[in-house]
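1st attempt posting a full record on here, be nice pls
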Amino acid sequence: MRKNARKIKIKPPRKMRYGPSKPLFQTKEIIFRSGARAKALKISSKVQILFLILFFCMAGWAAYSYHIYNKTGTLKSKLNDSRNAYAELMSDFVAVHKNINSMFSLIAEENFDDEEEMKRYKEQALVVEEKIKEIADSGNWFDGEKVEEQTNLRAALLARDRVIAERNALLTKIKNLETSVQKLETAEMEILNKVEKLSETEAQKIRNAITGINQSIKKQNKYFNLFGGGKKSSTGGTFEKAPEVDNQMLSKKMQDVFLKIEDLDYYREIMKTVPVGKPVLNYHVSSPFGHRADPFNKKSATHKGVDLASNKGNIIKVMADGKVIRAEWVTGYGNLLEIDHGNGFKTKYAHLNKMYVKKGQNVEQGDEIGEVGSTGRSTGPHLHYEVLYNGVNVDPMAFITAYNNKGEKI
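the predicted structure (as tokens):
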């Protein structure tokens, strides 16, 4: 063997870093020693898995028990709050219930017209309903196994339903009242339109009559001013505020109609002093106003009135309010009545068969004052009728013909 031969080193084999994988739940042995003997208790993988499942179950039950304990405390707190709220709700409900019953009684008697009071009751009912909803919708804090909590919930819900029913009944009443008010407003508008039309029609007839009269008396250089002296604007008195109307259209219509009615009342008052109309119902004009041939001597003469031929005994009526200033026999006129109507108007009635009134007596429009006759200078039964304005004779036919087509007085 060579002395210089190299020594060969043999390295030991490397240790394996990882051993073969073992099952998680492999069979385990527990050894019990007693004296000189030893016993081994084998625990299989299935038993190990069973014990692990049992452990997790016990841990879950402990966690659930802790959660239920905390939840029970919260439940008791909420239950106390709900009981306090329910007690407050019942107090409000009793008050609102009494008010609603009282209101129903008033509505039934049709004596309830205070909208502010009705609004207050409605708001109280809504507040109670909101309180009930707040209690009922606060969460699922009632346990199905707790009979007392379920009873309180049912009572609260029943109370809520009762209040809602009361409120709905009240709202129905209010709605019916509002509908009735709307119908009344519609009816009032229709009535106001008719009144406005009638007032305007009658006022226009009066204006037309005065226009016709003025066309006639202008020939005698006279003019009757319906608003003479500014009498229509001469008013006064304390201010009394009219009831307010929410419907603006109805309020405006009322104002317009009232103004037209005021105008018409003024026209009617003035027309009481204007002798407009027929003093005798059935007649024919036998001699007009103005120049004519005298019926006795056939000479040209001035006729200061009109002769209305009619049957003897026919009733003569006065056409305006006034006072009798003459009631006597006058040569040529026979039985003569003269009436002063004011505003410059006078009328004369001649050749009467009978006179029903005396000097100084006040008469009203439409009063019977005498009968048609033929007394004095007359050729037959007729009414000699004169109209004077501010001392000047004017044509009476302008006053007699101030009628509509049906012959009805304006």
